[in-house]
Amino acid sequence: MIYQRAQYAKGGAGRLYWDYRDRVAFSYILPGHRRVVDMGCGEGITLEKLIKAFPEKDVIGVDLEQENIEICTQYGLRAVYSDIYNLALPSGCFDACICIDVLEHLKRPEEAVRELRRILKTGGRLVIVIPNDRIFFLARLAMGMVKEAFYDAGHERQWKPKEVKGLLKDAGFRIVSGKSLPFLFWQTSLHYIIAADKELL
To answer: pLDDT at position 149, please?
Structure first.
């Protein structure tokens, strides 16, 4: 098991990039987004940053792993256990949802995206970040991170930006922005970030 906080504590280029990725994701959260959920919050690193970046907002984390919820609680973070396919959250209760490195783990992504749409208000924003597994593998090898390079992260599939946009459009979202990180082209980047707003069907 590779723990997020242990990896983050190592510092270096990995931590600098993690912080950069989160800042870009946060840039799509608008002043009017009062209630924000970090879906698949893991051990709470990004959740912690969200709370610090937006102290005026109501921020909560959600994760399927009970151990992650316990870790978040240890750090004084508000996080709840729930299944992304059947969230124990009211409909239309959030203005924005951050969903980083989650989609690739899902066996039923269409069902999950519909559920995320349900908990968002009309006009609410969904920010999805997907990894480029091939580039991550090469980057980790180049940095001497052999254990991390060959670690089975449990990804169900490798998404492409066009596929994610199609998934969101089919679920009733309007694509606002799409951007590769940290470079211009997806083929050479580590992540792709998509912001989409819930449309009224």
So the answer is: 67
Three-class DSSP category at 73: helix
For residue 165, the 8-state DSSP code is: H
pLDDT digits (tens, 9 = 90+) for 38-74: 999 999 999 999 999 999 999 999 999 999 999 999 9
Element (H, E) at 127: strand 120-131
CATH of 4-198, one of 3.30.70.20, 3.40.50.10490, 1.10.3720.10, 3.40.50.150: 3.40.50.150
One-character DSSP codes across 131-161: E-HHHHHHHHHHTT-HHHHT-----S----H
Q: Identity (one letter) of the amino acid at 163?
A: E
Q: What is the pLDDT of residue 143?
A: 73
Over its C-alpha atoms, the chain yields an Rg (Å, rounded) of 16
Q: At which residue do the structure tokens 């912001």 appear? A: 195
Residue ranges in the chain whose pLDDT is less than 70: 1, 149, 152
Q: Are 133 and 103 in contact (CB under 8 A)?
A: no
Give the SS3 label for residue 31.
coil
